[in-house]
Design a protein that fits this description.
The protein has 223 residues and is mostly helical. It has one domain: Lysozyme (Orthogonal Bundle), CATH 1.10.530. It is built from eleven helices and no strands. The protein is globular, with a radius of gyration of 20 Å. The protein starts with a helix and ends with a helix. About 8% of the residues have low confidence.
Length: 223
């Protein structure tokens, strides 16, 4: 009894140290673990299209966790649908006839991710992941605009996520002066972007889930 109680408190103590140290986010980890049955349910489809599009199945899984929590019938206020929350225009361009059909939805998102990865062939993998996620959330055009700002400022490489992340926050009317120097127009080619915080948090969340899915790996998800 004493040993069980000691072990219990030891586990609690280690967990608290990890939480307070920022190693794990208890809320996100519990959400991920609660979705384990759904992940296992859709694992065959995720793996099928990950192989087809030369993607990491764990990355697709992490994206779905953030996008819909594996709710195949999910609809956002903006009109995004299904497991990977495809927008109607994007779904149509990808040839997805029914975004609420899990296989069509995953297949379409995998094709889209494949294209986005090829948009950043020179970035190192860790930065490439983040640039792809930002493009998935905010649109490739917005990320291209941010890269143009980074190139103009010549303070860092547009192949790196952090300078691009900072530049995304500068695609607002408050930065019209620099826009005119880069594009001779106060408005960036793909319009003003007010969703910086959302996109930044989105990238951070998906990458966290991706890291945790890799950590739990074959023990829980068999991915």
């Amino acid at each position: 009894m004493f040993r069980k109680r000691t072990l219990f408190f030891l586990i609690i103590a280690v967990t608290m140290i990890l939480v307070l140290g920022g190693v794990i986010n208890l809320h996100l980890d519990l959400r991920l673990l609660a979705l384990a049955p759904k992940i296992l349910k859709y694992k065959p489809l995720i793996q099928k299209y990950a192989v087809k599009e030369d993607l990491d199945a764990r990355f697709i899984c992490a994206l779905i966790v953030q996008e819909s929590g594996f709710n195949e019938k999910a609809r956002s206020a903006a009109g995004a649908q299904g497991l990977t929350q495809l927008m109607p225009k994007t779904a149509k361009a990808l040839g997805v006839q029914d975004p609420l059909d899990p296989e069509q939805n995953i297949a379409g998102a995998a094709r889209h991710l494949h294209t986005l990865y090829h948009a950043f062939p020179e970035s190192q993998q860790d930065h490439q992941h983040r640039l792809v996620l930002a493009s998935y959330n905010a649109g490739l055009g917005r990320v291209r605009d941010a890269q143009a700002l980074v190139r103009y400022q010549q303070k860092a490489s547009p192949l790196l996520w952090e300078p691009v992340r900072t530049a995304l926050s500068q695609l607002t009317p408050q930065h019209a002066a620099i826009h005119k120097k880069v594009w001779k127009s106060e408005v960036p080619p793909h319009g003003y972007f007010e969703g910086f915080d959302e996109t930044s948090n989105y990238v951070k969340r998906v990458m966290y889930y991706y890291g945790r899915i890799r950590f739990y790996g074959k023990v829980l998800f068999f991915l």
